[in-house]
Request: fold
Amino acid sequence: MIDRRLFPLLETLAASRLDWLMRDVMVSIELGDQQVETENALSSAHERIRLNEEVRSESENQASKERSTPWTGDEQVALAADIVMTRLKETLLMAEFSIESVSRLIGAETREVTTPSNEGVAVLGDDGEVEASMDEQAVRKALEGMDQLRLAIEEWKSVTLRGSENT
Amino acid sequence: MSAFAFQLQNSQREWEMWNGVQFSGRSGAKHEFDIAIVPSHTASTLRARNAGGVPFGRPVVAIECKDVSAAGTLDEMRAFIARLYDVTALDGHAPFLTSVCSPLTSIHPGRLPLDGPHRTYRNSNIASRSVLVRRAGFSSGTLAMTGYYSIDPRGNVVLGSSQEANLLSDLTAWIVKNLA
Reply:
């Protein structure tokens, strides 16, 4: 169950056309604190692939249903704040990297520009529709605004958690 | 949808890497792979058709990307394997897929003997590379299916991470070894 104190944040994300981020927060909260496979287990899996080993899992620990623990309300608030900050920054950094990579691939410095171009990336939603598009300048501007956003998110988290202490 | 073509040095074979293209399976259902590598003759044959078309069969490389915060679930792994199962055409399927292509190829439009169907799922799994790449990890129990079905699980792959570097390095090595 999603803690109702998250609703203002989720509504803000929806109003900002960040539906994908809103969904990401909601799914992460609904799935709970999941027990995850270890790095060693992943490395072993990679090794089996490398060696073309077809291995039938004999592990006693494999579960038909994954194990997870529901997040408490306060944990949900902290998690939501963390996801929003992390994912937004990552998305912007990836957009910046993508624009640079595509420019390098197509030799942007040397090609002849015959029509106005707006090199950038588009973020597609699950339905394949463009949810946001960013050019190089917009990405840089957004990255510059991340500190301000971080302060705002921290403030929201702090006020929200303080509010629960006072009740 | 985007695509770019490549050819390895000293190799006659040409390939295309596709992003977000649907493939038709044995059931007739269509399945999208986030990143797929196919023979370039498959791509050019489809483009040459007035109406284009949907390729049938299994790409030689199929990568599913999950850019989400939550860990991957068993159902997510099952869904990926089920898609690969539906797009895998084996020798024994030939009599039942004559409406798709005859003789049957592992990918259509394809060319024999390059794109001949495999005899078993194991052969097909080993001849191709199927990767499930995630920004987050995998929930416990999810890896149980990977060994048997040759699914390469890559978790915690974020820009600049060692996992990203390892994934790119391993994939490149596989491509150089198998697509020459």
